[in-house]
Structure prediction request, 469 residues.
Amino acid sequence: MLKICVVGTGYVGLVTGTCLAEMGHDVLCVDTHAEKIARLSKGDIPIYEPGLDAIVADNVAAGRLAFSTDITSVLAWETLVLFFAIGTPTAADGPHADVGPLRNAVLQAARARAERGYGGFIVFVIKSTVPVGTCARLDAEVARWLPRESYAIVSNPEFLREGCAIEDFLAPDRIVLGSSSPHGLALMRRVYAPLTTRGYRLLAFDTVETSEMIKYASNVFLATKIGLVNEFALLCEKVGADVTDLAQGIGLDRRIGPAGLKAGPGFGGSCFPKDLRALVRIAEEAGGAMPIAEAVIASNERQKRAMVARVVERLGGDVRDLRIGVLGLSFKAGTDDVREAPAVTLIDELIKAGARVVAFDPVAMQAFGRIVPDIELAATAEDVFADAAAVVIVTEWPEFAALPFAELSSAMARPLVIDLRNHLDPAPLAALGYEYLGLGHAASRADLLVEVEMELDGRPERKAAIAAE
Ligand SMILES: NC(=O)c1ccc[n+]([C@@H]2O[C@H](COP(=O)([O-])OP(=O)(O)OC[C@H]3O[C@@H](n4cnc5c(N)ncnc54)[C@H](O)[C@@H]3O)[C@@H](O)[C@H]2O)c1
Prediction:
């Protein structure tokens, strides 16, 4: 087993470090965020990721996992495998990814090792998502500090999904490596041996560029799938088709596959939006073009705005002074990550339009409150129903489906549920007298609903039941 240091202990770094320890390695996780490390050192996990707390505790207790703000102690290791999982967000001045903090951390480690005169071999493993060419540039820069034969730069992009990150790391669809250093790749095969001996696929390329590009290509494919199904959801409503059935119909085609075909309010999170933007820039800089990625970015923005319009229109075109309940703030269920979450656009716009928004999320409220300070946060999911003109489901947390809807409708100003995830079963809600507006079903058509209302002359139970059929 190897001694490994992971630099950057966020969503990816903490999962990576913990899972490498679980695989039997000795791991030190380092972060410059002192409060984060202080919390981790006390067994308090700063992010929400299902199952992570138990596996951290197990590995700390087994003496395989530790946390520090200081990288110095690892620099003397004879064989040093240094994973970098530092954030690469969109830069403040443009659509490209900001690799500055990552670059600084890599060069600081190289320089410190050189200045201390330590021998041995060091592998700089770039786990962060970085523009194609970054690893090659880092290689050239590290060469100013360390002899070529004493280090390797390895690209090892991460494909985990927040919410099931541990499973994704320990049972990956594939592990991707890229390096011009055979010794570096050989060491990385040892790192991942506990997984490859159990049959998990490892692809090792002798160029960093291929590995770097695979990460962006994966994300643009996945984002395109979601973008397309979201567009189909809106089209289905117009032509009388049903997007859930459509997803099943196309997903059974093995060339398409069933995953990632759920319609929703637009994708968010810390990866797809910023990686697509970065990819478009990478293509421009290389003299190429990525018109599909550009279209997916635009389509996703359109989807997020369409969700705002959907809520406003359903509430008669004017939401001033209306109280609107929102269930779910994280960009998807299973995480507290609110970066570029569709809830941000929705709530921002509703507040701008004069609505009083009250929201609940089981784990993401603190993080969300930092981004949208004007939001009123409810103590419980039930509380968002009080006096609400509508409750909007934005994130598909399973517990929302188990709410006591029978008791909650009477608390609302109008028993209207707008479900942007098709998360709830419409029929029981309709039976309880709710108006239900899902996404991508013929019954979600605003004009159809109006017709039904007129025909039935204001009998709400029956109205909603028909709308949901
Ligand atoms: N979050 C995901 O689901 C996911 C999935 C795959 C890939 N990625 C990629 O992984 C990378 C990390 O993403 P994340 O979501 O974990 O980011 P994050 O913001 O959650 O974590 C980054 C961490 O790096 C720390 N850091 C910054 N500078 C540092 C330094 N010099 N030394 C030590 N620590 C430092 C920060 O304090 C922070 O804790 C990004 O490139 C991202 O695109 C993310």
Q: What stands out?
A: The domain at 3-206 is CATH 3.40.50.720 (Rossmann fold). The longest strand covers residues 79-84. Residues 208-239 form the longest helix (32 residues). Residues 308 and 346 are 5 Å apart (CA to CA).
